[in-house]
Specification:
single chain; eight-stranded parallel β-barrel; 45% helix; alpha/beta; disordered N terminus; globular; TIM Barrel; 283 residues
């Protein structure tokens, strides 16, 4: 008998799930935010006001990569208070955070990474938000089952701390939806969920539309929207059915538009991307 690959099994399962899922319009409204790094304002409080000016529903804050006095750059009570003040003044929520130090000290092998996640749980709670993005790219990319198991075991230790703080640890990576769920299950923590990036998944050879339907609302904490063109909808990702899939699973959280822009075009590009997603969401 010929062996069936793991990817073939997943593709088949996803296809069946999509086939039985009714496609009737539900008009579920999710919120649209923007990461501070997509505004070229990583770990910079100015991102809060700019996100509001551009019309976004929320802003995702990064904690910074280069340590300051042995701590994450935003691990400062005065800075946290400043972010909260700006959020209130501009009437825009901080929709989540990112421990981008994990691009340097990676969770799959570096012991220091556990500390940065723990510190970020505390900071995320202090910012009065819930979703903490854990990135797994570059040297930190998950490539083997052993690496995935190592991360899952680390998250099993961090999970109770996150749950107590009311924080969700979101996995953003380039592995399949099924492999992400295996990490979630091994971690034995309801505080571990998938931070689904449609661009990363598409580049890795997976179908974001089918994976989002298969994962469902309860296993996705937030979403990154990106594309291979200059603007959303001009690349390889099929955005109309993608937005429909997000609505069909009744996702009401934040989908953050993570697109890069040419110098001097950030505001114009982000306004165009935001208008495009809103039009699809309301169509």
């Amino acid at each position: 008998m010929n062996k069936i690959s793991r990817r073939t099994l997943l593709t088949s399962a996803l296809g069946c799930a999509a086939a039985v899922r009714p496609l009737a319009a539900r008009r579920t409204q999710f919120k649209i935010g923007v990461p501070d790094w997509s505004l070229n304002l990583g770990a910079n409080p100015d991102a809060v006001g700019l996100a509001k000016k551009l019309g976004f529903d929320g802003v995702q804050i990064s904690f910074g990569r280069l340590l300051v006095n042995g701590k994450l750059p935003l691990d400062n009570p005065d800075l946290i208070a400043h972010y909260l003040q700006l959020s209130a003044q501009n009437n825009i929520p901080i929709d989540g955070t990112c421990v981008d130090r994990l691009h340097m000290d990676v969770l799959k092998s570096d012991k220091a990474a556990v500390r940065w996640v723990s510190d970020s749980i505390r900071l995320t709670k202090a910012l009065k938000t819930q979703v903490l993005l854990l990135p797994f790219f570059g040297r930190g990319a998950l490539k083997t089952r052993a690496e995935m198991d190592y991360v899952a075991d680390a998250l099993r230790e961090l999970g109770p701390e996150a749950a107590k703080a009311g924080v969700i640890l979101g996995l953003e990576d380039t592995i399949s939806a099924m492999d992400n769920v295996s990490i979630m299950e091994r971690s034995k923590s309801d505080a571990v969920k998938v931070y689904y990036d449609v661009g990363n998944s598409n580049t890795a050879g997976f179908d974001p539309i089918s994976e989002i339907r298969w994962l469902g609302r309860k296993r996705i904490c937030q979403i990154h929207l990106k594309d291979t063109g200059q603007w959303l909808g001009e690349g390889v990702i099929r955005y109309p059915p993608l937005i429909r899939a997000i609505q069909d699973i009744d996702f009401t959280g934040y989908a953050n538009i993570e697109m890069s822009s040419k110098p001097g075009q950030i505001e114009a590009d982000m306004k165009k991307n935001l208008a495009y997603v809103r039009d699809l969401e309301n169509s």
